[in-house]
Amino acid sequence: MRPVAIVGAGMIPFGRRDDDNLMDMLAYASLNALDDAGLGDKGVNAVYVANMGAGMLNHQMSVASALVDRLSLQPAAAESIENGPASGGSAIKNGLLAVASGYYDLVLVVGGEKMRDVSGWRATDFVASMTHPTAEYIYGITLPGMAGMFTRLYMQKYGVTREHLVQVAIKNQEMGALNPYAHVESRITHEGIVDSWHSRVNNPPVADPLRLYDVCPVSDGAAAVILAPLDLAKQFKKTPIVIAGFGQATDTHSLQEREDPTDLKAVTLAAQQAFEMAKMKPSDIHVAELHDAFTILEIAESEHVGFFKKGEGAKALEQGKTKFGGQIPINVSGGLKARGHPVGATGVAQVVDIVWQLRHELPKDRQVQNAVNGLTVNFGGFGNNVLSFVLRRGEK
Amino acid sequence: MPIDLELESVLRPPEVPMVPYPPKVVTLANGKQMVVREITREDVPRVLEAVRPITTYERDYYDIVASRVYAELLGWYRWRIVNEFVLIAQIDGMLVGLVNSRMLNAKTGMSLHTLTTDRGLRIGSHMFAAKMEHHIEYLKQEEVLIVAESPIGFRRWMIEYGLEPTNIPHELGGALSFRLSKELYFATKDRLVVGDRPVPKELLDKAMEDIIVVDEKTVAQKICGVKGR
């Protein structure tokens, strides 16, 4: 397999994009990535589109074929990839394999989701449709409900407290407020969401012990990358970012079938594979984007990828190790919590954010100084299908 | 505008005296202090300045709600709507939301509208709660009749309060009314109604000093998002 680099990256601001349909968003993100790479509409061999719910949410299928036409990229090959909230990571992995194999030279990977076309409860039901149909969904489980139970178990086992969750929420909204691509633009304070008795209205329960500010918003958005073999990457205008390693692992569909539901085995395995392939260890990473669809997941994943020992993620958070300027800044973009979580886009958006970090392109208030290596974790289902990427700054 | 006082006495409906709403202060999620207080007729022209540009924003039915609020406030200002009250929300003097409502009779309140110009902080929830608080706790009414004109309103009022559907037409002329009874209000009060009294003098003085109206561009950004999203 030949090494593969990211030579173009683009995103559109996440949020509620009433004036754009799914194809508009996918096209804008793709064009941003193509422009970033200095490519026109020629030369792309294949297009991989990550999307989870166009059929259910937007009554549209075969989005990859439609996008190729929209961008006039024919006769490029085109595939749509659906793998729940890990669709973005899956699409990058498939694009990566296609380039690494030598079959294609230039691949566009774009992820997008248009979730705000439906009401909040329909969006919640749509996301819940990935749970086990007969063991979970029929009993009314939702992802927030599942995360609430997971959080309670994690609290009991590892001593995580409500205060730790609050710290993640405040940290990520603080960073999101600095990110022009983030859905949530407002900062929150401890007083406003915890201390004041008024917080019972500001931050109401969603799924005990999770409250409103523990949960990511429902967003529209899209992000894209251009992949090329590393030996061609130097021909492009930007510093290439090498995909040094990737991993993917699965776990039981139903959470109750896991020996220890607090053990996110697929996260551990995916990250281990990525580190092994990259010949790196967790301490080599300078910046990470973890899948914080719920605040607890940032803490749990920071342990499962090996940044901290099991049960020590919350302590590291307390000590400021995961904040911007800390030992390992996590979710400097604001994460899913603030940037938003258009499910099909998320895995690609995480990679785009790390690409910008490793190119040292971000404004000072968000740029991790001298960042060379980055990690992403894209978490599908409730940890039943996880992808992880280790990225490394290449040489221009 | 010249007024024929004799005719005006016929056109102008008699009003029932209403006890004032005592101001309160609410701490928002971003830590800012929001003063909620009742305004007088004399304040209406200033508030209309803030409402006028919003009548053109389609997003989330702001155009319908703002247009109706404009007419209802003007109607109150010109003595054509009876027993109306208007509560506003201010942060550092700046207007960020308002609610209006009226007494249909001594027993029943008729909720009119809730309009916020700063979003994502549950200001609408706080303001709707203040409106219900005024009807039930200060005006001592037995029930309030409510409709929603946007999906957000439906989620906030009908779902969060568990309002009771009725067959009673609402005077806004759309869907049938939902009811917040006194019992339901007190059953939900702990969860949904907050605020501290008295408001610290400095905060109240700042709010009373002027109703600051932000420029149209800023309001558009607040309602439609910084990047129009």
What can you tell me about this protein's structure?
The complex is a heterodimer of chains A (396) and B (229). Chain A has a domain at 4-119 and 218-233: 3-Layer(aba) Sandwich (Peroxisomal Thiolase, Chain A, domain 1). Chain A is built from 15 helices and 11 strands. The model of chain A has no long low-confidence stretch (mean pLDDT 97). By secondary structure, chain A is α/β, with parallel strands linked by helices. Chain A has helices at residues 22-37, 54-58, 63-70, 87-100, 120-128, 143-158, 162-176, 190-195, 199-202, 230-233, 265-278, 295-304, 313-318, 335-339, 343-359; strands spanning 4-11, 46-50, 77-81, 107-114, 205-207, 210-211, 220-229, 241-250, 287-289, 373-380, 385-393. Chain B is an alpha+beta fold. Helix content of chain B is 37%, strand content 23%. Chain B has 8 helices and 8 strands, in the order H-E-E-H-H-E-E-E-H-E-H-E-E-H-H-H. Chain B has an 8-stranded mixed beta sheet, with helices on both faces. Chain B is globular, with a radius of gyration of 17 Å.
- Rg of chain A is 19 Å
Using the alpha-carbon principal axes, give the shape of chain B.
globular
Q: What fraction of the residues of chain A are assigned to beta strands by DSSP?
A: 15-25%
List the helices and strands of chain B in order. HEEHHEEEHEHEEHHH
The CATH topology label of the domain at 4-119 and 218-233 in chain A is Peroxisomal Thiolase, Chain A, domain 1
Instruction: Catalogue the unreliable spans of chain B.
Output: none
* Multimer state: heterodimer
> Count the helices of chain B. How many?
8
CATH hierarchy class name of the domain at 4-119 and 218-233 in chain A: Alpha Beta
Count of distinct strands of chain B: 8
Give the low-confidence spans of chain A: none
The side-by-side strand order for the widest beta sheet of chain B comes to 1-2-3-4-5-6-8-7
Strand order, largest beta sheet of chain A: 3-2-4-7-1-8-11-10-9
The CATH homologous superfamily of chain B is termed Gcn5-related N-acetyltransferase (GNAT)
H/E series of chain A: EHEHHEHEHHHHHEEEHEHEHHHHEE
Major sheet details of chain B: 8 strands, mixed
Largest interface: A-B, 30 and 28 residues
Bin the strand percentage of chain B.
15-25%
Architecture of the domain at 4-119 and 218-233 in chain A in CATH? 3-Layer(aba) Sandwich
User: Please, what is the CATH homologous superfamily of the domain at 4-119 and 218-233 in chain A?
Assistant: Thiolase/Chalcone synthase
